[in-house]
Amino acid sequence: MTRPATRPAARPTGPRAGGNRASADRLARLLNLVPYLLARPGIEIAEAAGDLGVTERQLREDLELLWVCGLPGYGPGDLIDMAFDGDRVTITYDAGIDRPLRLTPDEALALVVALRMLAETPGVANREAVERALAKIENAAGDLVGTPVEVRLQADGRRVEQLRAAVGRGRALRITYYTPARDETTERVIDPLRMLMVGGRAYVEAWCRRAEEVRLFRADRIDAVVELDEPAVVPPQARPHDLTEGVFRPSPDLPLITLRIGRGERWITEYYPCERVERGDGDQWLVSLRVTDLGWARRFVLGLGPGVAVVAPAELADQVRAQAVAALEAYASPDGAPSGDPAGSASPR
Q1: 229-258, pLDDT tens digit by residue?
Q2: Which residue range forms the structural domain that includes residue 328?
Q3: Which of 64, 137, 194, 332 has the fewest other C-beta atoms within 10 Å?
Q4: Range 52-65 average pLDDT
Q5: 173 and 219 assigned to the same domain
């Protein structure tokens, strides 16, 4: 007997369902569960629960969660599928998770280096989780972790180290900061709370005396930093940001844009918080998301290429069209200037 066509809603996970450690343990269990069941079609749930060291109830909850996991698209042919015959279960579609995760030596070493750097970063939350993960990988990697490794930091590496040291000493900082959305550079005094790594980028979270609120400052956009001879004084009302869903937090007061995307651009829905995703004609989708401003949206759309079209707002479509035309004219002109521009400027008109 196969399961009902209607997929059950996944139960919430996270801090309210047992904390970060419980979530991490469950993720590891789920990644191993599919290969385990593939190797034992028709196994009884009670036997599987005993092998996996969980209760039957927990295993059934894990199976319910697997029903809503799968590949981008998340349609009937994209999600992990299974069939039940009484108290027996069989995986009928594995969505590519057909074997336990195995790291190559290079992958294991890269994780060890990254986790060691993260563990040494001041202000990192859940340091115990980082150290537990590091210990497990080092134990599995064996002698590999003793291999000499040369770590080359990005161009802003010295700036990150300078910021880390200042945060560790509890000093106030005067920074020169570039904001690309407004194309402006400002000078401000900040009282650091902590250093963060989010999405592979380093941030300083601090009380900004200029804005009089807690702000996040990307390290690679800090053009200059001076450590002041005064301690950082963070007001009692200052609260760290909740970054569990990333740095950007969409809100109704931000501009809403709608894009028509093809199959090759569906990754957008995985990396950006979308308010609405609808199937269009053929392989096309209509995607609506909030953006900080239309200037950022224009650069974003132009970087995506011809597989994306702006549906709304009309102002954004006009901006994208104008800059694309100006770029094409610049390529067509021998001297690199748009045709009809006697000043030789390649800026959009």
Answers
A1: 899 888 888 887 666 655 666 678 788 999
A2: 256-332
A3: 332
A4: 88
A5: yes
